[in-house]
User: Which sequence fits this backbone?
């Protein structure tokens, strides 16, 4: 049902790997977000892109690198992650200051 | 300070019961308010926005009390399919939908 599409749905990676999470929306939203959610915890904001520019970085470690190639796409590049980075990574989009719609998430496991 | 507090539950109710959840928030300048529903290992899905005048969507009623800084969700005639975690979310910023989520309240509806 979601109009925010995330790939892959599941990802297992080693601590030396480089991988990317991808997100796409076709609702014409001008703001896109990355949230991280650990088990039994609420989603926590990582990054906000507004009009394709990085607007908010919630002090996220540099091993997470966001990229917004265009208004419909949002990537999250991962490098040298730690096991504690294992979580559900949620992409979301909205018009500025309006309802937030989430993708189905990428369940990431770092070994 | 951006804090959103919820009773984690679980709330165990029989089918047909009425159940209410409350959520308090720390910042009186908060801009907008929402209830999300999250099933296990799934993304949060928007249930409803919350307005000062109160709003209703079928069996669900949401209320906002700005003076006391809390929002509520009332579910009437509970169904088995209502079993989920209910997250309240508050947007403390204008211009972006940077939601701060409560930890969620788990609802278990039994036959």
Assistant:
């Amino acid at each position: 049902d979601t109009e925010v599409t995330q790939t892959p749905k599941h990802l297992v990676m080693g601590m030396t790997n480089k991988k990317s999470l991808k997100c796409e929306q076709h609702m014409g939203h001008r703001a896109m977000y990355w949230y991280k959610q650990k088990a039994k915890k609420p989603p926590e904001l990582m990054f906000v892109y507004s009009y394709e520019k990085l607007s908010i970085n919630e002090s996220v470690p540099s091993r997470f690198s966001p990229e917004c190639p265009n208004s419909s796409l949002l990537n999250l590049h991962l490098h040298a992650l730690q096991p504690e980075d294992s979580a559900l990574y949620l992409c979301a989009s909205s018009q500025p200051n309006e309802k937030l719609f989430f993708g189905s998430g990428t369940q990431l496991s770092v070994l | 300070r951006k804090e959103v507090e919820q009773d984690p539950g679980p709330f165990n109710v029989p089918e047909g019961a009425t159940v209410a959840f409350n959520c308090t928030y720390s910042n009186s300048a908060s801009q907008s308010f929402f209830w999300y529903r999250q099933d296990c290992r799934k993304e949060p899905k928007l249930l409803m926005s919350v307005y000062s005048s109160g709003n209703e969507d079928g069996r669900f009623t949401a209320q906002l009390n700005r003076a006391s800084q809390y929002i509520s969700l009332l579910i009437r005639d509970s169904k088995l399919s209502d079993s989920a975690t209910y997250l309240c979310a508050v947007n403390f910023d204008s211009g972006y939908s940077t939601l701060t989520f409560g930890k969620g309240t788990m609802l278990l509806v039994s036959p």
